[in-house]
Amino acid sequence: MxxxxxxxxxxxxxxxVSVIFLLRLMYIQVFDDQWKIYAANASERVITEYPSRGxxxxxxxxxxxxxxxxxxxxxxxxxxDEMDTLAFCELLGIDLPTFREKLQKAKAYSRYxxxxxxxxxxxxxxxxxxxxxxxxxxxYGQPRxxxxxxxxxxxxxxxxxxxxxxxxxxxxxxxxxxxxxxxxGVEAIYEESLRGKRGKRYVLVDVHNNEKxxxxxxxxxxxxxxxxxxxxxxxxxxxxxxxxxxxxxxGSIVAIEPATGEILCIVTNPAYDPNLLVGRVRGSNYRMxxxxxxxxxxxxxxxxxxxxxxxxxxxxGLIGLQEGVIEPSSRFSCPGGYYFGGRLxxxxxxxxSPADLAYSIQTSCNAYYxxxxxRVLEKxxxxxxGYNKWRSYISAFxxxxxxxxxxxxxxxxxxxxxxxxxxxxxxxxxxxHTIISLAIGQGELGVTPVQMANIAATIAxxxxxxxxxxxxxxxxxxxxxxTYTQKRYTGxxxxxxxxxxxxxxxxxxxGTGRGVRFSPxxxxxxxxxxxxxxxxxxxxxFMAFAPKDNPRIAIAVYVENVGFGSxxxxxxxxxxxxxxxxxxxxxxHVEARMVNANLL
Length: 600
Prior knowledge:
Beta-lactamase; 600 residues; seven-stranded mixed β-sheet; Penicillin-binding protein 2a (Domain 2); 19% strand; 2 domains; alpha+beta; 22 helices; 37% helix
C-alpha cells in the first residue's frame, strides 16, 4: 500500500470515530433521558416514598398494630432564600434560635441534599403548614407513617420503632439517614419483613416552591413496596383479659397452645401504653418510663428469674421415673419434712404419710422429692456424675438456656453446672444433701415464666414441645423456621407422663388447687407453687393445662410478693382458662376479687 492510500485510510478511520462520538453524544443529549436524572437531582426535587410498615394481627384477624399518617418537613439548603423567618417560626411553633440551629445543622449535612427540618408532624397539623409552604422556598413535606395501636396492649411484646443511628447505617447499607427501624420485640425480630422497600418520586417545582407535576412523566419513579403483614398467635381478647386480671399487681401470665407452641397471650405488669413510644414524644416518654419505680419497661415474662418452687416437683418426679429410682407406687414417709444428719430440712406441711407419687403431687410433699433427688444423684459413681445426668434432663425441658422465643430480651434462667458447686464447696466435697433445696425448686434455680409455661405444655404433650413463638404467619404463609417447627423431646418416656398428669389432675380435684376447676365438662391438670423470696413475701405460682386429654391451653401465672400459689395465681389461672376455653366467666365474684385487688 502506497503513502497516498495509507493517508486516506487514516482519514477514514478518524472520520468514522468522530461520527460515532457525535452520534453517541446526540443520543445521550436528545434521545436518552437517563442523563436527565442527574440534572433532576441537581435542579428538581427527589422525594423518597416510604413504604407503609406491615400490619400485625391477632390469631382471629383483629388488628393489633396499624399505621397513621405523619409528615416530615424537609429542607434543601441551597434553595432557601430570603424569607419571613418569624412567620415561618410561628407556623411551626418554634423560636428563632431553634430555627437557626436546625437550618445550620441541615447546611452542615449538605447544601445540596435534602434533610429533615421538623419530623413526625401529625397530618392534621401539616395541613395548615402545607397551605403556606409556597411562601418559603427550599421547604417541602414528605409523607411518612407511624405506628398506631388501636388497643393499648402488649407493649413489651410488640416493641417499638426508632430512628436509625449512624452505627446502624454503617452496619447495614439498606438504611439511610432518617429511616426507622424496629428497636425491640416483634418490630425488631421481624424487621426485614415489616419494613417494606423504599421508592422514589421525581417532581418538578416552580419558583414558588409548588409541585408542577412528575418529572419525565414519572418514567423514572419507583414505587414503594409495603411491608409484609404478620399474623401473631395471640388471642387479643385473652391478652386483654389477662392484663385486666393482673392490673395493680406485679407478675406475668404466659399461655401456650401445646400442640403448636403458639403463644396465646404473654402478659407482664406493670406495663405501659405502646402509643407512648410513638412519634416526637417517644424520647421524653421513654425517659419517664425508665425512671418509674414500678419498672414498667421490665418484661417479667421473659426477663424475670424466679425459683420454680413446688411446680418443679413435676419434673423431678419424671426424672425419677425415667432413671428407675422410683415407681408410681414408691412411698416415702414425711415426718413433717425431710430428715438428714439429724436435721429437718426442708420442712413440709401436714398431710398423710407415707405418700406415693400421685399423692405427693396432690399434697405437694417436700420430703418425697428430696428422696427422689438423692436417689438420682446416688445412682452414679459420684455426685458430680449424678448431678450432670440430672441437669441434662433439666436442660431437655428448656431450662437453663434461652428457649429462643421470637421476642427480644429473653434471658436463660439459671441451672448451675456442677463446676459451680465445685467452686463453692470444693471438688468432691458436696453431695445431694448439700444442694437438697434443688429437689423442691428452690436454691440456685432460676426459671422464667415463659419457661414454666413451656414445661406445662411439655407435660400436656407427654414429653415434647415446640419452641414457643409469637408470630404464626407472614403475609398469610405459615412460618417455616425450623426453630419453631421442629419438635423438641425431653428424653423421658411418654408413659411416665401419664403418672404425673394423673397427679396434676388430683391437685385440682382434691389437692392444693381445689377451686381451679371451672366446668364439670373440662378436666384441668395443675400444680401450685410458692417461690421463696429473700426480699419480702413469697411469690405465688400456678401452672396448668386443660383439657386433660387433647389439651388446648397450657399456662403459667406468677404474682410477686403475695404469698401462696393457691391464693392469687391459681384463681387467675382458672379464669384465664375458662375465658379461653368457654368464652365466658361463670364466677363473677372470683373475677371481681382478682380484678379489684391492689397488691402493689
